[in-house]
Amino acid sequence: MKTIPIKTALATAVQAAHAAGKIMRDNWNKPKRVASAEAHDIKLELDVHCQKRIEQILLAAFPKTALLGEEGMAGNADSDYRWVVDPIDGTVNYFLGLPHACVSIALQQRDPSQTPNPKRPPHLTVLGVIYDPFLDELWTATRGGKTRLNGRVVRVSSRDKAGDAVVAMGFSKSKANLEKSLPHLNRLARQTRKLRVMGSAALELAYVASGRIDLYVERTINLWDIAAGALMVECSGGECWLNPLPDGRFRMCADNGRLRKKLQLASLLK
Q: Thinking of the domain 162-255, which architecture would CATH place it in?
């Protein structure tokens, strides 16, 4: 497959993110139809609607690519390129009327030089777009470039003391994850300046990239939640530590490059 022009791909991803964001805004004050509900999560019919709109735009422009999304797969599964999409990251927030949710789109390229290694994903993220339709904030990043927020270059924070840090945590609600995570939640609440549990992994990563928070950690998380944001953290001068799990999910910690070890998170990420 020919190399995809990154500038064109980025413009297309921005178009798709804005289109899905418009759907989110247009339906903000309307009743939400629940497609499925679990003990700790909700899926809306709008999740599917937003992903279908994103698919239409991305695959019309790049019909030979694959698309991996929270709401399923589409396109050419054998492609060297794949879009990774979370159409509404923060669905529970959105459903409850909390305006902290976003669209996340990443483009990944298969790494032909990489020998098989279960500790390293076989795809490399080459661009990321995160759009918050409620604040009209658009983050973009391309590998080797800078992270931008509405066109302005942003960077991670410079805070390096635990007592000054603002930390965000996310939780997968399995018994094992809660048993591992809750003691760290208690410790970090006492050790840091502030602890936040906000409910949108993509936005938390964008906030790390922008210096709004200093570190975000989650013990079990899906690729579509973090593909775009992890690149943004790296492109803004931070570090994103990912440990792939056998089921395709990840242990993940993203920070400004100064705090992960100081906050003693190694046991949480095992």
A: 3-Layer(aba) Sandwich (3.40)
